Amino acid sequence: QKEVEQDPGPLSVPEGAIVSLNCTYSNSAFQYFMWYRQYSRKGPELLMYTYSSGNKEDGRFTAQVDKSSKYISLFIRDSQPSDSATYLCALELGGYNKLIFGAGTRLAVHP
Amino acid sequence: GAVVSQHPSRVICKSGTSVKIECRSLDFQATTMFWYRQFPKQSLMLMATSNEGSKATYEQGVEKDKFLINHASLTLSTLTVTSAHPEDSSFYICSARESGIVETQYFGPGTRLLVL
């Protein structure tokens, strides 16, 4: 079993839709939870990070962590074609200086 | 957000030559930098963790004599692919962690290496 599971997609949605991206993990020791966006042939860009259960909102993006279920989500409201990218969840044990990445979900938002 | 640069962005070399890739944190000091490798449509694979002034820590299966890492200052780390072969062709990405801020890593734009 992988430490972090993420559906690779692809996920195709119409412009304006609400997008839900998810990861599950197996190690309850993970302390920090991040979402990165990666455009084709570019480096990942940090979108959100959190370290506690609950929701964190930033503009159209909401990151949700449920430590009891070992489940994290990223919601994108009013999705735009420019949101088309691969979204990677990344988790860190804390103090280990190492991120464990999900496989990444490819998202396509069509006009 | 913090900015990390990489140079070169693309490189093509002949088999058997060595290639050096630079990673710089432009507006912050990074005690720790990371080197990743990414194949098409796959996630990032951590190759090594580089701490300023000390030897890099390599992940299992990564040849340290093949992938030389130097982290000589708080803003610069280099990855040298020695005696490159076609199977080394990949997208290499570095990231940097800002000193004193442990939760986040900022990634460079990546370097695409093609070995002929």
Q: Biggest protein-protein interface?
A: A-B, 25 and 25 residues
What quaternary form is this? heterodimer
Distance, first to last CA of chain B: 36 Å
Our estimate of the beta-strand percent of chain B is over 45%
Radius of gyration of chain A: 13 Å
How many beta-strand elements of chain A?
11
* Secondary-structure element pattern of chain A, one letter each: EEEEEEEEEEE
Instruction: Give the overall shape of chain A, derived from the CA principal axes.
Output: globular
Q: Determine the number of helices of chain A (DSSP H or I, runs of at least 4 residues).
A: 0
Query: Which residues of chain A form runs of ≥5 with pLDDT under 50?
Result: none
State the share of residues found in helices of chain A, binned by percent. under 10%
Mean pLDDT of chain B: 91
User: What is the rounded Rg of chain B?
Assistant: 13 Å
Distance between the termini of chain A: 37 Å
Alpha plus pi helix count of chain B: 0
Structural class, from secondary structure content of chain A? Answer: mainly beta
SSE succession of chain B = EEEEEEEEEEE
Shape of chain B: globular
Explain how this protein is built.
The complex is a heterodimer of chains A (111) and B (116). Chain A is mainly beta. Helices cover 0% and strands 54% of the residues of chain A. The model of chain A has no long low-confidence stretch (mean pLDDT 92). In chain A, strands 2, 4, 5, 9, 10 and 11 form a 6-stranded mixed β-sheet that branches. Chain A has a 5-stranded antiparallel β-sheet with strand order 1-3-8-7-6, with no helix packed on it. Chain A has strands at 4-5, 11-14, 19-25, 32-38, 45-50, 54-58, 61-66, 71-76, 85-92, 99-101, 105-110. Chain B is an all-beta fold and 116 residues long. Chain B has no helices and 11 strands. In chain B, strands 2, 4, 5, 6, 9, 10 and 11 form a 7-stranded mixed β-sheet that branches. In chain B, strands 1-3-8-7 form a 4-stranded antiparallel β-sheet, with no helix packed on it. Chain B is globular and about 40 Å long. The N and C termini of chain B lie far apart (36 Å). The model of chain B has no long low-confidence stretch (mean pLDDT 91). The A-B interface holds A 8, 32, 34, 36, 41-46, 49, 51, 88, 90, 92, 94-95, 97-99, 101-104, 106 and B 1, 4, 6, 32, 34, 41-44, 46, 49, 91, 93, 95, 97, 102-110, 112.
